[in-house]
Design brief:
This protein has five helices and 23 strands. α2 runs antiparallel to α3.
């Protein structure tokens, strides 16, 4: 019995010794001495193509709020809301009964005035003849000439009243002032309209249309230069992004630059003209105008994911060889031996420029040919050991060891 217990105790002690030896073999290396897996990007000079973007608003080239210049109730509506209408097309009619009566009365007054003038002319002719033969008093002749002149004036006044009556009668029929799209009617049949107060409808021209943008006064010379260039219709200096962020089919040109700068905001309005054959662009629509940059100088570009922001300043990490060999800066491998200098991450402050897709222009802080770290920057600090290669692949390989 004692011999069995001794054998069991020896077996347990042997197992513990073997387990302790196994744990020692799986010792985890110190993370501070492990290089961070990264990917590199070689910064090169190139001529970038990019666009400055400005929020814009579509404005109709011609737009009119229609009001009636005569009062009365609406007797007819002769269009379908939202339809394209032609210049001179009848849209509304206002009750014209009193305007027709005024016109008829004015016509009658003209006929009476014409009769009075005819009679006055005959009397004047008669007294002129008698005066030539000294057969009538001079005073009678003067009265006849005055009556003739008054008859002429009365006829002229009657004709003016007829014109006014005719105008009022014509205005009882409201017509389209130009070709365009008519909106939703603000009045219905039987509604009473007041002179110059009641809004009937709004009509806008279809095309071309204007898109207005507001730019800083510092950009005026740039747009003046573009205006003088008079680009070809197919040029893509000015393009348009629709509200759904799709690119509009047609390009634009500068129609005008406003006469002055707003002194409160230091900005000026630029109006661009765009074709609108399919009437896709509607007045009041919000959009984005893209203005192609015409700078032909070479720029240094790097991926945006390489940029690190710290306290409002921007930094990148550049891979550099180091010749300093020490226990901290020399990579140690699994066999515990040091194998010379390694790549280190050196932090550099940069000044950034325009963002172009997933890349950013670097104004200063880097040089062409610099090896910029683009992956693994979150794990770096100035002087970190690095190992070139995909972080995902590095982790995968480490898992197979």
């Amino acid at each position: 019995m004692k011999r069995s217990l001794l054998k069991m105790g020896a077996l347990i002690i042997s197992s513990l010794i073997l387990y302790a030896c196994g744990e020692k073999k799986q010792e985890v290396p110190n993370p501070a001495n492990m290089p961070v897996p990264v990917n590199l990007y070689t910064a090169n000079m190139e001529q970038p193509l990019y666009y400055d973007r400005f929020p814009g608003t579509v404005v109709a080239a011609m737009q009119v709020d229609m009001h009636s210049v005569v009062e009365g109730y609406v007797t007819g509506i002769f269009f379908k809301e939202g339809d394209h209408v032609k210049k001179g097309q009848r849209l509304y009619t206002i009750d014209d009964s009193k305007y027709q009566a005024s016109y008829n009365q004015a016509q009658a007054n003209v006929r009476v005035a014409e009769s009075n003038l005819d009679q006055a002319q005959k009397d004047a002719d008669r007294y002129i003849y008698l005066n030539e033969h000294d057969a009538v008093a001079r005073q009678i002749l003067d009265h006849a000439m005055t009556t003739l002149q008054n008859a002429k004036n009365q006829l002229a006044a009657a004709k003016q009243d007829l014109v006014k009556a005719q105008t009022d009668l014509n205005f009882s029929v409201i017509k389209a002032p130009f070709d365009g799209t008519i909106g939703i009617s603000q009045v219905k049949l039987g509604n009473t309209v007041s002179v110059g107060q009641t809004l009937l409808n709004t009509i806008s021209s279809d095309g071309p249309v204007f898109v207005e943008i507001v730019v800083n006064e510092k950009q005026i010379p740039f747009f003046l230069k573009l205006e003088r260039q008079k680009p070809d219709p197919g040029d893509s200096i000015f393009t348009l992004l629709m509200p759904d962020n799709t690119l509009y089919d047609h390009t634009g040109r500068i129609a005008l630059i406003d006469r002055g700068v707003n002194p409160q905001t230091g900005s000026i309005i630029i109006r661009l003209s765009f074709p609108n054959p399919s009437t896709v662009l509607r007045a009041g629509m919000s959009c984005t105008v893209r203005v192609r940059n015409s700078d032909t100088t070479q720029q240094l570009l790097i991926p945006g994911k390489a940029i690190v922001e710290q306290m409002g300043e921007y930094f990148v990490y550049v891979a550099k060889d180091t010749m300093i060999v020490s226990s901290d800066t020399t990579a140690k491998h699994n066999d515990g031996q040091s194998r010379g200098p390694s790549l280190h991450a050196i932090q550099k402050k940069v000044i950034t420029g325009q963002t172009i897709a997933d890349r950013i222009i670097i104004r200063s802080g880097l040089q062409s040919g610099d090896k910029v770290i683009v992956d693994g920057v979150q794990k770096l600090h100035d002087g970190s050991l690095i190992n070139v290669g995909s972080p995902a692949n590095q982790q995968k390989n480490a898992g197979h060891k």
